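To whoever is on call:

I kicked off a structure prediction for a single chain this morning and the downstream step that reads the tokens threw a length-mismatch warning. I double-checked the sequence; it's 541 residues and nothing unusual in it as far as I can see. Pasting both halves so you can look.
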Amino acid sequence: MATGEVLTGLGVGLTAVKAEVFRVKPHQDLPGPTKHSGDAAGEIDKLRAAIDAVSQELQTLAAKAGETSAEIFEALEMILMDESLFDTAVAEVESGWDAATAFHNGVETFAELLSGDPTFEERLADIRDLAKRVAANIHGISLGLNLPEEGRFVIVGEDFSPADTAQFTKAVVGVVTIAGGPTSHTAIICRSKSIPAVVSCKGAKNLVDGVEVLVDPVGDRVVIGGSDSDATQAITFVAKSSEPIIPVRANIGSLEDAVAAATTAAEGVGLFRTELLYLSSSSQPTVDSQSKSYAEILSAAPDGPIVVRTIDAGSDKPVPFLEMPHEENPALGVRGYRLIGQHRQFILDQLLALEEARQKSGREVWVMAPMIALASEAAEFASLAREVGQFKVGIMVETPSIIFELAKLASVVDFVSVGTNDLSQYLFASDRMNPNLGAMLNPWQPALIAALEAIATEAKKVGIYSGVCGESASDPAFSVVLAGLGFDSVSSSRSQVGAVRTALSAISMEEAKGISEKVRMASTSDEAKSVALAELGKLSG
């Protein structure tokens, strides 16, 4: 590849890095589909032993990887240990397949049942990785990445599973993947670890060991032989005020998250993902046990309001103790607040536990329901929540339909919070794992910005507080646009709270409105982003 050649993709991070390519070698090939010799009982024993071994491996990797990955490992371990998956694999053994092939077939059956769900399919590569690890254990094959421990390298591969990212060493200073997307596991981990990355970079398939590259995430590109001076510069914000023009809150999902968020300048919590507490729970927790967990988290969280999302189970977040029907398209099925039909008591118990925790902790608690599509659903949830506790009550705006129902929510809810990840998914009908559709998940898409403006404007008209807690709010430049569009607060990943807060302290509200107005006139996502960065660059000097 020629010096100066540019490979395009989707950038993750705000800083560039130059280093040599370390091409992650493909794992040793696993044996193909194989029939067993007739000892079905022996194969079943092999399968159970391999599943137990991989389960232990996932627990070890979770402890090593830290909390961001640990939540994903817990979800994967739950799937690995799922009895229905095991029973499906046993049926495959009884039909003649060996243990490794049987488990692979079981996973593929599981995948087929959930095909068509973009959220699930984003995790599908991670789930298929489980089948590989079970097979590797059975055949005595190592799936280690064999990464260098010393030096500085940009690692390049097709994509990286949760187990892969847990093996990243201190020598990994940049990451480039051929597949994946902006919300893939690789992107999430690189963002949390502040490792510059470019994902969905098809041209990376031709990169070889030893070639020096510049990973330029702000420019959404990899430059062969590029120098530091070639890097696209992120806007450097200098706070002009001690307070941001709108509050910046933190997203959390555990006690550890709450403790860490409290060390930042976050003004409370904009999204407490309660379902992350239950991804590995085999039995339904009592009100008392929930109340104790919630009280600890509320007490540890940063000062300010704490916005709690009631359980968002379903799709890619199955919760073991909630019986969920198999659906052809779970993302469009029974998930989030739609569980009220079959699991009303659990939602009521959760609200009761939150009220007890609110009283114990003395904190200001706002509760909101996910996956609300109709004003009538919002009214039902608001009524339930207010009967149970002294909360401010709101809903997530994730479905396009509820945007057109906001006018009906005056005096029904106190606030709305936009989940831009799901809103983008439903707005653009895009498979979030398909690298060919990665551009659809770009928050700078004009159609998404128009939808966000409509939400903020309509909420203000009817006197409802509005915030954004989706991934886009972690981008300092985009947070400025959100403020200019009229949102009352943003909530980011805790690692980005400082950067977002600085950006929103570096400009006036009038300046933010002016930038948003120009961004709204853009016809493409690239143009929208370029306009925003150019205008912010002028203001930052």
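Update from on-call: the warning came from a stale cache, not from the record. Cleared it. Sanity check on the structure: The mean pLDDT is 87.
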